[in-house]
């Protein structure tokens, strides 16, 4: 496909032709797309073959976009609630009525309780810098509401990683082909980062070895050269034991350690107790396997570790990443382009977009709330939250401790607005539902948290029905509320150009013209190997810090360590006796967070939520393959069909994907059991620290729209 656009055309959908788009989902790949339009309709979406990461390949989920956006369940007009909260009964209203109701209710709430009674709730659902990062923030800053601290994804790991490296920029993941060893640690690229698989295959063809560290046998484990299956939450202990072997046996890169690190002697003392034999008791990995793997890591140079978010979504997640991040420095891996360690980070583009967020519009000092506390806040009488405005997010599916959260959402005195593309589990609790555009219907600019492209998304089609973008909706609300600030007059072209004008070296060479012509432009960013070349890491000492004074000042242990998960055999033996199974909510190819799953049709084994359980855990509970089981702890319960398999290790169970309420036997998803406490560092989520028990469900009268049970 040959795409050539003039600026005047790129913000107006063509009746026929091919348009540059970007996949807006919360996925590291951020695919560059070519969207074909015929007679004003989107007919096909393909991966851009010219993009160096997309390489013409997109996932099956997103390739179905043309069907999905015209699906009969797409919201196409504003609605108000006529049933009970959660029931999903609404009637159509006009946009004028919707905006008037929201404005009046919001003004009453602000008059009675102040702007902090209103909470904006948004995630990375779908949206770029315009839709996701600027327009909503401006509006809520202008109102003076609390702002959202988005901690749920990678904040703990990112903060921990920074204590070691001084930056969240790791190895350039596109340049991994020269490595001799590639380790996937707590990540499942086949489900969550398919383009990494392309780079991995190239490296394997050149003779690299592949290792997987994961409590679950993910796709690809059968062909991996090495597989270690630690107990959930024990990853830091494994890393410390590897360091023990590498240091005590003198296998480390002495030159690199001398030139580029700080605190080696303290680290040596710290890892002294983490012998492979001791760590076997913490991880369930045999001491001889730990020793062998440590030797392998020290011998096969250079190497690349990809740490996924899985192992940092524990109560000890920050320290875990801080600890794993020390490994590449011991073997000198950071010296090579594409080697060292990569951790997904939404701050890979160190471009400060805060001027776009309207912090200067606030009538009051800025105050934030941690999104993980949403359920608690809604149920806390002192917090006096009276209204929620939800966009780009589906908290009634993705947030933890759902019983608490839904109790809050059910409050009669809570006025809830949800701006969405479909009637999500959250939208069913709304007082007002606003229909939202997809990215095929508006212009936006995207960064990625995997590769280094800046990408322009041009609208391919006119908005579906009466759907409106966040930009248009917040502009209508700003007008109705009498906000006369200039920024509310900006259209997406103005905002995109303002971002590109930001004075930051990362954007040097990124031009609007090039974005127009090819849809993407490489940012001026390099992996962490350049820090070695400059001999300057952005830590207080300028070195990679095994010992971090900054951590100490922040109230943490200055050295890497293993802290047992808050719910575990070591930390809470009594709780473990009662709820002896570690419950992981694993990813799955069918969904991305809670996106896509609602459109998975069929009734095959893999087209519905499942619970994977090891035979040794299933047999004593009389659980057989395909049986309906109840999973429970003191926070809540859910029901799933069992898949008895050695995919998980004994003592661990794993659900597959995150589906919508109607796809679960009793409408409850695994997040009814997950904890809403925050992790050790950075206030991150800890939902993989979750002990449960399960039992066979003998009789049930559950009904589901998707599959019959009982
Ligand atoms: S979900 Fe990920 S892999 Fe699929 S098209 Fe979007 S960015 Fe690409």
- The chain-level mean pLDDT equals 91
The rounded Rg comes to: 25 Å
Tell me about the largest β-sheet: 6 strands, mixed
Task: Count all strands and give the number.
Answer: 27
Low-confidence stretches: 1-6, 705-710
- Compute the separation of the termini in Å: 51 Å
SS strand fraction: 15-25%
Instruction: List bound small molecules.
Output: iron/sulfur cluster
Relative helix content: 25-40%
Number of helices: 25
What structural class do helix, strand and pairing data support? Answer: alpha/beta
Write a brief structural summary.
With 710 residues, the chain is α/β, with parallel strands linked by helices. Helices cover 29% and strands 17% of the residues.
Molecular structure report:
With 710 residues, the chain is of the alpha/beta class. The chain is 29% helix and 17% strand. The protein has a six-stranded mixed β-sheet, with helices on one face. Strands 22-26-23-25-24-27 form a six-stranded mixed barrel. The longest helix is centred in the N-terminal third of the chain and has 19 residues, at 95-113. It is globular.
